[in-house]
């Protein structure tokens, strides 16, 4: 039987301890998308438990992740939910800052909680279980509709969400095609009406991946001490657009394939029909069948740019995507990409991609 988050409040009370403001100040001095490696501040009191919290959110209605007076932010909403849970203000530090309109499949933050007995003020109780924290905070987030805690882990007092991060992965979604963008995709991807040449974009990635001076992909206002970064991965893939529902042609094709598989269950793999190896890659492709019925929307081609590195400069990913998109439409060549990288000036780059297609995908740690 699970605990009701409302009942959890009966067993917690306000703590006189607040986490050190040093951690929050250090985070605020770093620009968005910028993960400078600095010495981690001192941890909280030994009487306090530090939790590492993974969250997902749709960034459309947030004015970025960091706390801002009079604006709805990820940290602001999360701190309010924790306040309702434990009955006292908390200070939350995020691993990665995201702009207004940028989404997160998994951003990570840390928060310090001291659990004090409500019946016996001053008595410190054992820390809340990780699952209790996740359920209780999600209870207070449920009316927000665009943010959720997806994981919680107890960590040592000196474990810092930003400074201990070993790697960050970002995804960027582009939808290509002349059709108007679906209501379900609005503010979730960059709509490019032109066709994109994925092979050219992949060749451009080879120029940009690796250890470089990324001054041309560093927006004005970047506070990083050095423009040198190592981009461990930069790739472009075509995927099925989402939300995805199979067409009648695809459903019929899949049924035929399953019948072939059933009839061939006693045959070796080499005897199976070729179609069984390429489910979903039939004549309809990613764009839907050639002949659509009334009321059926033609799907866009969906491309995902993946960028992975220990740290990124301010707006680096969106500037990279802007150049890759220009290569895909034919407005830039591979030699132009080399020229832009060597120019070491952001004025040489193409217009920056909008925030709506950017997703913070994963933050990697060596967890204790």
UniProtKB/TrEMBL annotation:
E.C. number(s) listed in UniProt: 5.4.99.12
Renumbered residue ranges of the record's region Disordered: 1-46
InterPro entries, sorted: PsdUridine_synth_TruA, PsdUridine_synth_TruA_a/b_dom
The Pseudouridine synthase I TruA alpha/beta domain, residue ranges: 54-127, 204-366
Catalysed conversion reaction: uridine(38/39/40) in tRNA = pseudouridine(38/39/40) in tRNA
Top-rank taxon: Eukaryota
GO molecular function, one term: RNA binding
Keyword line: Isomerase, tRNA processing
Family statement drawn from the similarity comment of this UniProt entry: Belongs to the tRNA pseudouridine synthase TruA family.
A single GO BP: tRNA pseudouridine synthesis
Start-end of Basic and acidic residues biased regions: 1-17
Any Pfam family the entry gives: PseudoU_synth_1
Protein name according to UniProt: tRNA pseudouridine synthase
HAMAP family: TruA
């Amino acid at each position: 039987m699970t605990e009701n988050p409302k009942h959890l409040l009966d067993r917690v009370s306000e703590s006189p301890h607040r986490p050190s403001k040093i951690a929050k100040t250090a985070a605020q001095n770093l620009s968005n998308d910028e993960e400078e490696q600095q010495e981690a501040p001192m941890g909280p009191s030994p009487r306090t438990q530090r939790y590492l919290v993974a969250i997902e959110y749709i960034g459309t209605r947030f004015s970025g992740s960091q706390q801002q007076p009079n604006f709805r932010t990820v940290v602001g909403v999360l701190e309010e939910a924790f306040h309702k849970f434990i009955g006292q203000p908390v200070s939350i530090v995020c691993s990665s800052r995201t702009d207004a309109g940028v989404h997160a499949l998994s951003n990570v933050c840390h928060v310090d909680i001291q659990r004090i007995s409500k019946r016996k003020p001053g008595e410190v109780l054992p820390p809340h279980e990780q699952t209790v924290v996740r359920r209780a905070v999600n209870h207070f987030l449920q009316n927000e509709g665009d943010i959720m805690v997806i994981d919680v882990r107890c960590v040592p007092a000196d474990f810092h969400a930003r400074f201990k991060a070993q790697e960050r992965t970002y995804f960027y979604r582009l939808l290509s095609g002349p059709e108007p963008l679906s209501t379900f995709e609005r503010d979730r991807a960059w709509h490019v009406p032109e066709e994109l040449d994925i092979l050219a974009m992949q060749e451009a990635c080879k120029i940009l991946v690796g250890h470089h001076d990324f001054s041309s992909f560093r927006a004005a206002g970047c506070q990083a001490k050095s423009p040198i970064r190592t981009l461990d991965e930069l790739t472009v893939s075509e995927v099925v657009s989402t939300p995805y529902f199979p067409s009648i042609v695809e459903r019929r094709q899949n049924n035929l394939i399953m019948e072939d598989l059933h009839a061939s269950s006693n045959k070796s793999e080499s005897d199976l029909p070729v179609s069984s190896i390429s489910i979903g890659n039939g004549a309809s492709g990613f764009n839907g069948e050639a002949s659509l019925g009334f009321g059926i929307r033609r799907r866009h081609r969906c491309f995902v740019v993946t960028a992975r590195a220990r740290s990124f400069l301010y707006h680096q990913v969106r500037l990279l995507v802007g150049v890759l998109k220009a290569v895909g439409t034919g407005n830039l060549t591979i030699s132009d990409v080399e020229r832009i990288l060597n120019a070491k000036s952001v004025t040489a780059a193409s217009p920056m991609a909008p925030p709506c297609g950017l997703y913070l995908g994963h933050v990697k740690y060596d967890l204790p």
